[in-house]
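Researcher: Structure prediction, please.
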Amino acid sequence: MHYCAHDAIEYLMQSAGGGSQDQEHRVIRASVHHSYRDVCNAKDWLWHVTDSSITTVLNDNTYVLPEDCKNVDAIVMPDRTTVTSYISPAEWLRLEPSNLTLGEAVYWTVTKSTDPAAFDRWELKIAGKLPAGTVVRFTYRRTPKPLTLMGYETQVRTGFATVAGTTVTGINTNFPKRCTGSIFRIGTPGNYPEPLSGFYPYQAQARITTWGSDKSLTLDTNIGAFTDQCRYVISDYLDVSPGMFTAILTGAELWMARMMGKDINAAAGLYQRDLKLAMENDVIAPISGRRAPYDRTPDAVTTQYAGTYAPLGPDQGA
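Model: Predicted structure follows.
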């Protein structure tokens, strides 16, 4: 299931009773943009945790982090046991001249990049220089890319598309180059695809992996049977969980009321409610529950089983 900017736009159009060419449409688009930014920045969402790595080079200890890096959680050395710890930039300056060997404690910090070609990115700075070729892994929280394709631009719905497996061939289309990573939705020959709540829900959807030309795309999955000359929509993917998506919808309603000079109290209350629910459901394990009786370690077996079972009573120091 992919949530798209197209879904949020359609939701607001239904709420406002407007159309794609109405004067309100600019407000609708802006409201989705602002709400998406607000929800993604409301907290450090576990949904956005990802990992990457750097490989050290000779006589260097500063490395530009991925473009979507919002903040770094931790770094892990190749032996998996070396202690690593975050320090302030000022502390890093005092430790920076040292040379490190594997096994020593590694201290690191993050600062804004000084590279003119990456001025809007972060740098990972290691206190000291590690041997060249050392692979350092790290976890970080990503920043979702800005929305540019929202399902109603001319380039993302002009002409017809024929789909065979993972290949999309356009007829009188003008697929935009920047659509790589966006979601492609296929409809019918007579109707544009709508969200699942619409009268004409999309037949299938998939992520675009390659832009071949203004008439050719490649998808990440086979979306089914051969589909000939159908209407289509391309929209940016919303990098959010189901709970976060609901908060984006009510947040967009709040922004829309605000931009149109309407009373925002009711919309603000709904948004705060949905944002709170999203935060409560932002967990690493999406499926969890109460331990069943048959998961318990048998009483006859030692209780030193990583906490799977501990009998009631005082701690005996075992």
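Model: The chain has five helices and 14 strands.
Researcher: Thanks, that helps.
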